[in-house]
Amino acid sequence: MINILKTRFSEESLQVASSVDNLLKLKFESSSFLIDHYKDLFGICNQSLMSEMSVLKNILGENSSLEEIKQHLILYDGKVFPNFCKMFQVAITLPVSTAICERSFSTMRRIKTWLRTCMNQDRFSNLSIMNIEKDIPINNEDILTIFEKTERRIQLH
Fold first, then answer.
1. Model's pTM, two decimal places?
2. Where is the HAT C-terminal dimerisation domain (predicted)?
3. So what's the pLDDT on residue 114?
4. Quick one: angle between helices 99-114 and 121-132, nearest 10?
5. Are 89 and 114 within one domain?
């Protein structure tokens, strides 16, 4: 099985996958490949990130789940752990395989064919995302919380 993975994916892809896994396990040293790759792009300080990961590991324990990490980042609104929050966002948005991209292109082609004449780019993007991510469960409480935080657009007289 490991040989199949090595022949199918490049060495860099395997290192990124391993680094993502270690980042989500809050292991700074083992996730250095991913951190070094993105630190300049997002302005991340290695020492600060290492400290943030150490604090998170102390709070959550050794075997913290992805959901627990996410809840802590939401709880602190990304302000307490800004560097880790950026790296966490990178880690969870990296595609695992090309199948996701291929499925996305197929979905976009269907939507564009069906609604070609009456759609602007924003609507097309939003419809595509809704269709591609249809398997993700929706938490109504999160939506209401986000809606409550937005400013009112219509001014009442």
1. 0.56
2. 79-135
3. 61
4. 130
5. no
